[in-house]
Amino acid sequence: MRDLKHLYYFEKLLDDANNELVRQAKADGRLALGYTCYHMPEVLLNLEGCFSVRLRAPRTGSMEVATYYMSNATCEYARALLERGLEGGYKFLDAMAGVDVCECMNRSMENMELLGVNDPDKKNFFWCNLDSPCSDNEDCVEHLREQLSRKILKPLREDFGIDTSDQAIRDAVARHNEVCRLITEIGNYRKLDNPTITGYEFHILTLATYVCPKDLVVEKLRETLEELKTREPDPKKNFRAKVVVVGSEIDDPELISLIEDSGALVVADRFCYGSFPGRQEIVLTDDEDALTQVCRNYLQTTLCVRHSAQHKVQKRLDFAAQLAKDYHADGIIYEQIKFCTYWSYERALASHIMHNEYNIPTLSIDRPYMSRTSGQLRTRVQAFVESIEIKKIKAKRGQEVK
């Protein structure tokens, strides 16, 4: 396929947390609000005069200093963020909105605050460690609402003069939904028999919407969607199997590239920093205040393994199976960053259930934060693709015998 017109532009935006569009928005006087997790409702960080930046540590090398503070048996994502913060990579931020979701991220945020990775000249800079509930009932909704009102909206309103009214939240949701519609429509082209967009390309576009001011990328997303309407796929399929990738943080496009170079086209992304969940529209009604509805939406749509209630576990399993069906995938890859406590349990459980109860071929892997040089991982994906091909051959032979 011919290259997407804006792909290189989007790739360059991912080279640095303080990228070109972030600097442009900062020059316009807007606040840059850093956050790390789906449990921090992204839309509330995109009120008029603000924009959200989901934290990454692109081109991570040594993490020796962060390891000194956190030990080498903790999540590499959390350590990479701390290392980048200590290097001064997040001084452009005006606030850091963390979430109490796991011990590793707690320690990462705690060390960032104690070690002063923020710009000391920003007198109104604030830290937030949101106490996010572990389920989605109405008591949890109310608890999250109180936390967000006090820890996020209050300092934005009182210290920075940001409009946090009900109408301002509804306007932010409308802007958020426009980006979600574009990403969803672009992603639907992955459902084709011979998709006209690769998993790598889609991940690049999706990541850009997490780390850049959305209004500054929306026009190029529109142009990309129009481009895909007439983009012709390669006459011969350049993949051997289609897969859904499920798991923890993937903010490194090279991992998706590695999987696809091994013969497996990634057609759906059910992982942190992917489009499921995160790039689905938030539907608001006039019967209730917007903030409460936003809180309920995030608690009910989250697929995070931190939510261990039985109905949430079952929802994650059913959702992954439905993605495989909707996107015509041949298998699922369950992945986790090394030392991720929550996903180590979920991966072991789900990979077994998917294979034995849902009859979906499943590969289970753990991986480093940066996976681009992992020959072992490449070999395992290649072997998984071959196993899918063998299963198809056996199934075809069985049909011929009948």
Automatic annotation (TrEMBL):
<dbReference type="Pfam" id="PF06050">
    <property type="entry name" value="HGD-D"/>
</dbReference>
<comment type="similarity">
    <text>Belongs to the FldB/FldC dehydratase alpha/beta subunit family.</text>
</comment>
<keyword id="KW-0408">Iron</keyword>
<dbReference type="GO" id="GO:0051536">
    <property type="term" value="F:iron-sulfur cluster binding"/>
</dbReference>
<dbReference type="GO" id="GO:0016836">
    <property type="term" value="F:hydro-lyase activity"/>
</dbReference>
<protein>
    <submittedName>
        <fullName>2-hydroxyglutaryl-CoA dehydratase, D-component</fullName>
    </submittedName>
</protein>
<keyword id="KW-0479">Metal-binding</keyword>
<dbReference type="InterPro" id="IPR010327">
    <property type="entry name" value="FldB/FldC_alpha/beta"/>
</dbReference>
<keyword id="KW-0411">Iron-sulfur</keyword>
